[in-house]
């Protein structure tokens, strides 16, 4: 069990009671010791989706960086994250959405990482991979025939006609359609590469469940976070694009985690 597993009793804390009970950043939390945030996007999208979360965090005094991983291989994506972590000037909170959860689990052993936040994301253990684990609790995506297409050279993407319905039903349709046509194709192997490290075993973690997620089963997200001993925030009705459709709530959980880590380092 992770050494922070005693926090598991707090795991089912609601989104708003956990995040908004702390209100806007105060003089004590605006510049906590952990003030660096690194955001890692998931498959088929890029770092621009973090813009609204970024704006909230920067307004509250955080130094925020986005990783633009290439999605060409799991190793490439972890390396891209490590490069950004190397550039940080102190303790850093590492945040991953969707497939980005696998990336931060592997890259999170970096010495500058103080903690992890999973946003509708997997948190595999050593030797596990996202693709195999998803079969235990299939999502709507997994049960939708033809939703994931593959190029002849092994790169995957969501059928653009289904992207708005499956990935981003709570975004304006025009925006979801734009994202569907601007997908970053992901090598199929990124989902099935076994992890060699699991940072949540030794570093404090927090998890956000998207209550209406159709890409990853909300039940599977909850399983990951409970196993990691991570406090869980559930945002009811949120789709897989939760970081875009509910940026204030997501940013509030990130800020809460940074404040908690700050207390631990004082």
UniProtKB/TrEMBL annotation:
Position of the signal peptide: 1-27
Tagged with keyword Lyase: no
Pfam families: Abhydrolase_6
InterPro entries membership: AB_hydrolase_1 (IPR000073), AB_hydrolase_fold (IPR029058), Sec-Metab_Biosynth_Hydrolase (IPR052897)
Keywords: Signal
Keyword Signal belongs to the record: yes
Gene3D superfamilies, A to Z: alpha/beta hydrolase
Chain ranges of the AB hydrolase-1 domain: 37-253
Listed name of the protein: Pimeloyl-ACP methyl ester carboxylesterase
Organism encoding this protein: Ancylobacter polymorphus
């Amino acid at each position: 069990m992770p050494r922070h597993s005693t926090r598991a009793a707090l795991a089912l804390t609601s989104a708003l009671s956990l995040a908004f009970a702390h209100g806007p950043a105060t003089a004590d939390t605006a510049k906590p010791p952990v003030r660096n945030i690194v955001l890692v996007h998931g498959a088929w999208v890029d770092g621009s989706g973090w813009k609204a979360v970024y704006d909230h965090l920067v307004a509250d005094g955080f130094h925020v960086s986005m990783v633009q991983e290439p999605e060409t291989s799991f190793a490439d994506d972890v390396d891209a994250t490590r490069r950004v972590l190397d550039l940080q000037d102190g303790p850093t909170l590492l945040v991953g959405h969707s497939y980005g959860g696998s990336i931060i689990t592997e890259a999170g052993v970096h010495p500058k990482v103080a903690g992890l936040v999973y946003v509708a994301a997997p948190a595999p253990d050593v030797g596990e991979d996202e693709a195999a684990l998803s079969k235990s609790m299939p999502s709507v995506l997994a049960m939708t025939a033809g939703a994931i297409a593959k190029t002849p050279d092994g790169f995957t993407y969501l059928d653009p006609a289904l992207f708005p319905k499956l990935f981003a039903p709570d975004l304006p349709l025009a925006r979801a359609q734009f994202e569907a046509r601007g997908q970053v194709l992901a090598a199929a192997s990124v989902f099935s590469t076994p992890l060699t490290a699991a940072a949540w075993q030794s570093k404090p973690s927090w998890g956000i469940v998207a209550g209406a997620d159709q890409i990853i089963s909300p039940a599977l997200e909850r399983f990951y976070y409970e196993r990691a001993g991570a406090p869980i925030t559930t945002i009811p009705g949120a789709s897989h694009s939760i970081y875009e459709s509910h940026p204030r709530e997501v940013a509030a959980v990130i800020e809460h985690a940074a404040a908690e880590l700050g207390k631990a380092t004082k």
